[in-house]
Specification:
The protein has 2 domains: about 35-50 and about 70-130, Rossmann fold; about 130-240, Rossmann fold (3-Layer(aba) Sandwich). It is globular and about 45 Å long. Helix 4 links the parallel strand 2 (about 90-95) and strand 3 (about 115-120). Helices cover about 30% and strands about 20% of the residues. Helix 1 crosses helix 4 and helix 3 runs parallel beside helix 4. The protein has a 7-stranded mixed beta sheet, with helices on both faces. It has 8 helices and 7 strands. The chain is of the alpha/beta class. Bound molecules: S-adenosylmethionine. S-adenosylmethionine binds near residues 70, 96 and 142.
């Protein structure tokens, strides 16, 4: 297993930040120790520019398939999926250090061996992933900023969707959740306008219900925005760019 990436230099090619703070409250000693001792064992090292990173090779035992969660927060959904599907390899991306520490605690408690971590902006890892190498993608409550001046920070953009379409295998599923009606409309428009995706949830009755194999996240449980969440699912078409 390779050492942790430290992609903290903003650099000229870094995309506009789509996330908030990297650190919250000071960590208790046990959580801080997880970051120094366990994270380096699970962290994905940034590959040299132009080099492909075969995601199945990140795991000690090659998994049946690899899934990706973008912005896992405190990691309760990612850990639950890893526990439910031990033959799947899960990559979690999250720059928020306190969230990473929370997930590491869950990984240790449950003895999970099928999670690898990217502790930075997912958009810096996507170019290294080979075409059709990911079988499921989760983007759950990605952005808590409803104000118009923050829309430029939204993760769901044509460029991001193009990268997802490239790395997702034909038939792979994209799961997206939001409790912001504006972000729901924004996402539906952009996915409907993308030729690589077809909607599996096509009306409010369908996206109001969280499927049984989709555990709740902390953000959903907090119900911060006061709007009912939408749980969208899309299929990566076999044809398309
Ligand atoms: C509102 S929180 C939701 C967290 C979690 N998905 C949940 O539902 O509880 C959004 C998370 O997405 C992360 N995030 C935003 N943009 C990201 C990006 N480009 N790459 C990786 N994580 C990102 C943020 O750091 C933040 O922790």
């Amino acid at each position: 297993m390779t050492a942790m990436s430290t992609n903290t230099d903003p650099g000229p090619d870094r995309p506009i930040s789509s996330y908030g703070r990297r650190r919250g409250r000071p960590l208790r000693a046990g959580r801080a120790a997880l970051l120094t001792q366990v994270l380096p064992l699970l962290a994905i090292k940034a590959p040299p520019s132009g080099t492909a990173l075969e995601p199945r090779s990140l795991f000690a035992v090659a998994p049946r398939a690899v899934w990706l969660e973008v912005g896992f927060g405190a990691g309760e959904h990612l850990a639950a999926q890893a526990e439910a599907y031990p033959d799947i390899g899960l990559i979690g991306a999250e720059p928020y250090i306190n969230g990473i520490a929370g997930l590491l605690a869950r990984i240790q408690e449950a003895g999970l061996a099928n999670i690898r971590l990217w502790s930075d902006d997912i958009r810096l890892l996507l170019p290294a992933l080979p075409a059709a190498s990911i079988s499921r993608v989760f983007v759950l409550f990605p952005d808590p900023w409803p104000k118009a001046r923050h829309h430029k920070r939204r993760l769901i953009t044509p460029a991001f969707l193009n990268e997802l379409a490239r790395i997702m295998a034909p038939g792979a599923e994209l799961r997206f959740a939001t409790d912001d009606p504006g972000y729901l409309e924004w996402t539906l428009e952009r996915l409907a306008g993308h030729s690589a995706f077809t909607a599996l949830t096509t009306c409010p009755d369908e996206w109001a219900v969280r499927p049984a194999d989709w555990p709740a996240t902390r953000y959903e449980a907090k119900g911060l925005a006061g709007h009912p969440p939408a749980f969208l699912r899309f299929r990566r078409r076999a044809e398309g760019p």
